[in-house]
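#structure-requests
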Amino acid sequence: DVIKVHSTEKTDITLIPTSHVPPYGYGKNHGWTKIIRFTSLPLGLASADALRSARHDNSYDFTLSDLKAATRQIIRWHNRLSHVAAHTSLLTVTLDDLLDDPFDVEDRICSFLSVEKVISNGGHIDEEELIGSVQPIVELDNRVLTQIGHSSALEKVIEEVFEPVMKEEFRKSNNLSAWPCQSFWSVEDDPHPEKNLPLPIQKIAKEMSPNCNAEYTKCTVEKDRCEERGDAICK
């Protein structure tokens, strides 16, 4: 599909796909007018999916400790975006939304961006092709959920990982409202600044931290510079 802006004048829209959170600065530092957040639910799926993508071999070989750390990172990523939503328009799209009604998601995104869909193939959309484009994601996430169950008894995973981590993170963040957000680099049960994080957790932290050198972006808050260089203490 091709999109155009509802305007008599031509307006360019630049779409910037990224996993990096916007830097702090009340919208002046990230240069984005609107943000669309794509996410997977439940939380365990997003955490396991992040771990798999962070491994060089794309395998499902991760520990419960890794899963807890990645879950903290995912929660803090959402926490950072909740701060940004106070001054920058934010639309959230879940994988379930996309699977349940991809056409509705498409309409929502176009409405959010104030653009109009222009069908370039005679007004016909191939529904099977559209559904097929997200099918690999569904198959992958189903395998991830299976792996979570195989890594240990599922009840144990929920009891030892998600419930205590979520309670802890929501307490520390005052229900995702505390500023600044907890570091992406301090996510283990007993974090030590001098101890290196497992490589997949380091990669996730790097991909989530602000990219101060990205186009349209600048970092004026020291917390963002610390996150970019992997400094959880930030003194």
